[in-house]
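We emphasize that the prediction below concerns an isolated chain of 164 residues; any contacts that depend on oligomerization or on bound cofactors are therefore not represented. The input was used exactly as deposited, without trimming of termini.
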Amino acid sequence: MLKSITKKIGQFAKRQKLRRQGVLIDGSSVLISKTTFRGSAIIESHNRLSGDPIITIGKNFYLNAHCHLLGEITIGNDVLVGPKTIIWGRDHGISKDQLIREQNHIKDPIIIGNDVWIGANVTILKGVKIEDGAVIGAGSVVTKNVPENSICVGNPAKVVKYRS
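Result of the prediction step, given as a token string:
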């Protein structure tokens, strides 16, 4: 029981420190580790942010509910992320000479620019760079770089037009 009380006190202290930085955790079941905030942010409930080695988030960030961010991720200013989005900066090796579960992770950083809107249920995979002003449509799977001011949709995500 002492461990659970100590853990809850630690989580409360961490939330208070983030609140003083302008980061509002608006709900329950939020895990934040190895993550740096450079300004204000709103993190809704049931989110997990796990830097590997670190997640860096710019000013005016919004993360809707039920999202999972894992890996080395850099996010710019004024980024909006829809619910149930996954931003995943690593995966397993697939060599047939070894069991997949025993293979090392393959990691590649993800970079998301400024003024980006990522819709609901989007998956962004390792090594992707999303340029400033891009919009990613709901349900898209982003496997390649996204150009500036483009609107991308689909699986895999493709440019369908540009913001005017």
